[in-house]
Protein 1
Amino acid sequence: MAASNERIREVVEAYVSLIAGGTAAEIVDLFAEGATVEDPVGSAVRTTREEIAAFYGTLEGLQQETRLIDCRIAAGEAAFLFEVRTITDGGTFTLAPIDVMTFDDEGRITTMRAFWSDTDMSVG
Amino acid sequence: MAASNERIREVVEAYVSLIAGGTAAEIVDLFAEGATVEDPVGSAVRTTREEIAAFYGTLEGLQQETRLIDCRIAAGEAAFLFEVRTITDGGTFTLAPIDVMTFDDEGRITTMRAFWSDTDMSVG
C-alpha cells in the first residue's frame, strides 16, 4: 500500500528542514535503498548512496534557510515548491525549485527530480 | 534538440490561459501526437486525442479564472504551480495544482501529470 499523504507530507517537511540544518547522513536516511537523485532535471542521475551523500554533503558548510511554500501529494508521489536562501559574505542567493519525489510504502524517497535552472537564482 | 526554455514557457502560459478561456480543441492542439494526460496523478492515464479532448471538454461550460504562479523549466521539461478558480452559483472553488510536463523538440506537450488531491480544493 502506498504511503499515506500525511506520511509523505512529514517526509517532505523533514527534507526541506534538513536542507537548511541537517547533515548529509540525516538527509540520506530519508532515501530508500536504490534511490536516485536528479538535481537539476537533465543532469547526471546520482544512483548510489555514496553519490547522494556527496551531493548533499556540499550543503553542509553553507548557511542556509529553507521554507516549504506549497506541496501537492497524489498516489504516493509529491511535487513541492520550496525556497532555499544561502547566506554568504557576497550576498544572499535565493532559489525556489519544484521537486518531484516518489516514495516507497514506508514513505522513504525512491526518486527525487529537481526542476530549476540558473535563471531561477536571484542574488540580493 | 530539446525545445528552448522560452518556447516551453510560452506553451505553459498558453495552456494555463486556455484552461480558463479556451476550447478543448485549442488545448488539444498544444499536445503532440501520442501524448498522455494523468490528472490527477494516480488516475487512469488518457492516451488518445479523443480521451484528452473529452477530458478538457468538461471544462468548456465552466466559468473559470486561472493564473500561473510559478514555473520551473529544465532540460525540456516543466513543473509549474497554477491556480484555477471555478465560479459557480454555489460558490468559488479554488485549486492550485502542480503540473509536470514533458515536451517534444517543437515544444508540443508529450506528457502531462497533475499533482493535487481533493483536500487541496477550497470553497469560498
Protein 2
Amino acid sequence: MRDFYDDQLDALAADLAAMTTAVRLSLARASTALLDGDLGAAETVISGDAVIDAARESCENDAISLLATQQPVATDLRRVVAGLRIAGDLERIGDLAAHIAKLARMRMPEPAVPASARPIIAEMARVAEGMLESVAIVLGTHDLDAAAALLSADDEMDGLYRAMFRDLLDGDWDGGVEAAVDVALLSRYYERTGDHAVSIARRVVYQVTGVVPQA
Amino acid sequence: MRDFYDDQLDALAADLAAMTTAVRLSLARASTALLDGDLGAAETVISGDAVIDAARESCENDAISLLATQQPVATDLRRVVAGLRIAGDLERIGDLAAHIAKLARMRMPEPAVPASARPIIAEMARVAEGMLESVAIVLGTHDLDAAAALLSADDEMDGLYRAMFRDLLDGDWDGGVEAAVDVALLSRYYERTGDHAVSIARRVVYQVTGVVPQA
C-alpha cells in the first residue's frame, strides 16, 4: 500500500514539473511573439493555454484522489495542499503568457512595444524567464538557495515595473496613448508572473522549513 | 465524532462567509475612495488588506486541520478543497481592492478617473459590487440562480472592459497618457475581480451539480 502511495505523490510532483515546463515554454514564446513580432509563437501560446488549464485540472484531481484514498497527514498533507496551490499559480502564469501573446498579436505587424520601452520590457521578459527556471529548480530539488534567488529576482522585477511606470508617467512619454496602455498592461503581466513564481517558492520553502519567508 | 466534524465544516463555511463580507466592504470602500476621492476610505482599504490575508491563512489552516483530523471523502472532501480555492479567490479580490485604493490615493486630491471615463468605471464598480453580493448569496445558499446571475454579470463586466479600452484606443482620448494608464489598470482590476467572483461561483456549482459551468 505504501508503494502505491509514494507513486501517487511522485505522480503529483511529476505533473507539477511537466506543467512548469509547459508554462516556461509558453512564457518564453509569448516574449518572442512580443519582442520579435512572431505570429506563429503568439498563436502557439494562445492555443496552448487550454492544455495548461487541463494540466491544472489533472493536478487537482491527482491531489483530491490522494486525499481521498491515502488520507495523508502532517508533512505529506501539506505537500498535497501546496501542490493544489502551486498548480493554481502555474495556471495563472500560463494565462498571463496568453495575455502577452494576445496583445502582441493584436498589434502585429506593428510592434506592441515602442522602441523607448523595449529595453525595460525585454529585461522584464528575461527576469521572468529566469524566475520560471528557478521555479523548476525549486520544485524539483527543494533547493533553498534557488528559492532565495527567486525572491531577489522578484525585487529586480518590481524595480523594473516601477521604472517602466516612471517612464510612462514622467511627462516625457512620446509613444502615444495606445502604446502607453499596452506597455502598462504588459508590465503588469510580467510583474504578476513574478508574484506567482514567488508564491510557488514560498510554498516550497514552507514545506521544507516550516517557516513562510517574508516579502 | 460526527458532531465535531460538522462543527469544523461549519466553521470553514463561516470563515469563508466572514471573509466574503470583509472583501465586499473593502471593494465598496475602494470604489468610494476612487470615485469620491475619499482618502479615509482608501487608507482603510489599504491597511485592512492584511486582515483579509490573515483570514485566508485561517481558512487554509481550518481546511488542512479538517483534512488531517477528519479525513473527509467524496462530497465533503470536494467541499474542503473548494474552500481552499475560494479563500484564495477572495484574497485576490481583496488585493485588487487595495490596488484600486492605492491608485486612488496616489492621485488625490485629483481624481484618478477623468470625467470622460467616469461613467464606465463607475458602472464597473457597480457591477463588481453586485457580483460580490451574489458571491455571498451563492456561498451562503448554494443557489444556482444566483450563480447564473453572477455569470451573466461577468459578461456585462467584460463588455464594459472592452468599451473602456475602445474609448482609450480609438484615437479620440483626450485625457492624456497618465489618465489612460490609470484607467487601463483600474479597468483591469475590476475585470479581474469579476473573474475571481466567477471562479468562486463555478466551484460552488460544481459542488452542487457535479458539472463545471462553462464560460
Protein 3
Amino acid sequence: MANVAVPPGRYRNGKRMKLWTRFKTSHGRIGFGLLQGDQILEHRGDLYDQPVATGATIARDAVDLLCPCEPSKIVALWNNYHALGAKLGKAAPSHPLFLIKPATTLNGPDAVIRRPASYAGKIVFEGELGIVIGKAASNVSEEAARDYILGYTLVNDVTAAEIIEQDGNFAQWTRAKGFDTFGCLGPFIAEEFDWREAELITTLDGTERQRYPLADMIFNPWQLVARLSQDMTLLPGDVIAVGTSIGVGSMKEGALVEVSIDGLGTLANRMGG
Amino acid sequence: MANVAVPPGRYRNGKRMKLWTRFKTSHGRIGFGLLQGDQILEHRGDLYDQPVATGATIARDAVDLLCPCEPSKIVALWNNYHALGAKLGKAAPSHPLFLIKPATTLNGPDAVIRRPASYAGKIVFEGELGIVIGKAASNVSEEAARDYILGYTLVNDVTAAEIIEQDGNFAQWTRAKGFDTFGCLGPFIAEEFDWREAELITTLDGTERQRYPLADMIFNPWQLVARLSQDMTLLPGDVIAVGTSIGVGSMKEGALVEVSIDGLGTLANRMGG
C-alpha cells in the first residue's frame, strides 16, 4: 500500500468510493461484499443485478481475497498509451487493437504466477487498469458506455515475451498472454472511480518500474467499451485490460510485482519457483 | 445431407457412432441426448461426466437443435493444412498458431450469421473440423490426448477478412473472427469419429467450394490437444477449430453455407440480410 498516496476506497479528496470484493473463508465458503475499513459487508444475489446486503460482516483478515469478478473473457489491448507508442515508434491505432486472454488465465490477489512447463524464456509484467463490465454491452455509444461499466480494477497482464515473434508468419499474442495464471486481477472493483487524474504504479521487488498517468490512454475507458461493443457482446464481469505504458520488464523466479492506483489498492503477485 | 456419402452417425463401413445433440423444445425447454435415427434419447446430468438416459425420447423434428456444447473458449487455428500453407507460401509452423474466438461468437445449426453493424467489407466462410474437449486437459501427452477428446463436430469459422490487415502494426485476427454469430458449430458431437480417412466439404448455395482430406492437417487432433494443453487448460466443452484448407470464399447477404463430413452430418448457416 506504500505505493500510493490514498488507501483503497478513497479519492484524493478523501471522498469514499464503493469497493467490491470476493472472498473465500477458511471453511472454503465463497462470498462477496463491500469492503468497509477492515470489514467486508457481505452481500447475496447477483453482483451485476442489485445485490442485497445480508447484514453479516466478516473481517477482511479472516478470508482470502479472490478475483473480484469471474470474466468470461479478458479483452487485452495493445498500443493504447501515447507514451509507449511513441517509444516503440508505433502510430496511434484507428480502432482498439486487442486479443483475448481466456478465463483460465485468471489469478487472484496474492496468488502465484506459474512459469509454463514448456517455456524457459523471459516472462514480463504489465501493470494495467482493468474495466469491469456491469451489463451486457453490444453496439453502445460512447455517451452510453459509462452506464455499462460496473467499476475498475487492477491487472497484471503477464506475458511470455519471447513467444510473440517466434513464428515470422503469425504474431502469437494469444499464446504469449494466454497461459494459466497470466491474468492477475484485483483486489477490488471500485465503483465511480475517476481514471482521469489517476496514475498507475508498478513495483518489482519494491522498486518502482512503471508510473504513468491513465489520462495518456489513446482510447479511454468509455471509448473502449463503445468500440469493443461493436466487435463483440461484452458480458457482465468481463474485463477490458486497457493496455500498459512504458516500464514493463522481466520477472525472475520469486519476484514480487505490485500494481497500484490511488484508491484501487494494490494487486500483489509473486512469480513461483 | 446430399454433400456426403453416409448419414450422420454412420461410418463408411456402416458401423454406428454416438451422436450427442442439444436441443430446445417449442416450450423453450433445453435438453440434450443421443440422436438415434429420427429420435433423440434424452439424457440428464453432465454431458462430460457420465450422463444418464432419462428413458424419454423426443422427435428430432419437434425441436430446434442448438450448439451441441457450450465452450468457454474456441481455440481457432491458423495455417494447419499443408495444401493451404503451400498455396499461401507459408512454412509449416513448429507449434500450433492460434487465436481465441469468445463464447459470444457461438451460433447453432441453422442459425443466422449476422453482419456486424460496423463492418461493410468481405465476410468469408471457413469450413473446419472441431474437436470437443471431454475433460480438463493441462500438459497432456500426445499419447494421452485422445482420452481428453469427447468427440468431433463441424465449424464454420466466419471471418471479417478485411479487418485482419487493417492496421500495419498488429494483425487483428481476434477482432476479425470474434464477432457475435461468427462461431457456427454443430449440429452434433460424434464420439469415436475417425478423422484419418474423412474429408470435409463446404458448399456455398449448393455449389461445392471446399473439399479436402482431414489427413492433410499439419498438427492432427491428438497433437493439437497435447500442444495446446501446454499453452492453457482446455476445459470440458471447449472447442478447437483445427483450421481450414483451400477454397474459402466470400458470403453475400442471404447466402447458405453448408459444412459436411461423412458421419458428422451437415452444419448449415445462412448469412442474414
